[in-house]
# Entry
Amino acid sequence: MSPAASKFLDLARWIATLLVALHHTHNVFVNHADIMTAPHAWPAYVWWFVTAFPIGHAGLVMFFVISGFLVGGLLVEKVRAGQPFLRSYFIDRAIRINVVLYPALVLTLLMDSIGARIFPGPDLLEIVRQGDGATATTFVANLFNLQGIWFSPFGSNGPLWSLGVEFWYYMIAPLLLLPLSAAYAKGWRIAAFALGLTLFVVMTASGSYFLFGFWLWALGALVRIAPRPVMRSRWLALALWIGAVCVLRLIVRLPAADAFPHKYIVDFITSLMFANLLLTLQFDPVGFRWARPEFHKKFADFTYSIYAMHLPVAVWMAGFAALAYGVGWRRELATPLHYAWTIGSVAVMVLAGFLLSRVTEQKTGALRQWARRVLPGGAPGKMGAKRI
# Structure
């Protein structure tokens, strides 16, 4: 990966996280029902534009491409290298997802349970108890990363759906690619491919976002290994991506933006433009100057923790607002106070994510080393590897 692409990805990760968090928090606090029928100051229209579903969802779609670029592309490189890699790969990927997911599930359970008792108003209970999302079965299914595929995300933590989808991309992709690796015996390669294909069919049969998201993830992986860029100008690539997001934001609105086929068309176009930007930066010796500061990486290092807990935090902030102003306050037409609560809630999410990351994401390397020591299969002659 080029330095230009690496620096830009640090910036893109934290911006995408904040776009998603801001969209969800806006939905909790800001009522823009009169945005088209009454005059507003220009900041209100800017806010309405930036916090809408197409922009927030574009931030989420960026994660699929970024994940494919970082993980899928590296996976292809490992397959090409001709050395055994499955054990370390599965350890790295499982710990990366679950080191944050498991604490997030426990915290969601605690926060939802306590919040449902101390905060007033049935509307908060509706957020916390979405469908079958608060059952013991759903909790266990989330432990196995089946949320967003065959089960609902647990409790108020709806955004966890994308982590379940991403986890199974991690698990299935190396199995499908193993026949291309010279490091493993033929029988193991055939068996791995059969298992991967079976899992792929089972996950696709759920009718979820899994299948479409897989192609976005694969697009990111292809960018990582592409031999040349489509265009050389990073500024043109950036303009095409931002332009596509803005134009689609204006012409595709809810409910169409969240329905088939509009959603998939929008996601494909924005993903393609973002992937093109990454591809351009892969071959750019300079990159964007504003992407170079080190604080981008510092923010990026705990964006996963922010994402994993931002909606339960928003629910609690809504609970505190209900205590302060009454149960129906957050559904009133937006005032400066509603915007202030939204911005303040996002700030609390960032702080909470940072604190959570200190005991989760920051421990990823140590946990991976521990797992490599204690799990079987680490000795020479790894399972399935060719004997020379």
About this structure: The two ends are 32 Å apart (CA to CA). The mean pLDDT is 91. Residues 228 and 283 are 7 Å apart (CA to CA). The longest helix spans residues 86-118.
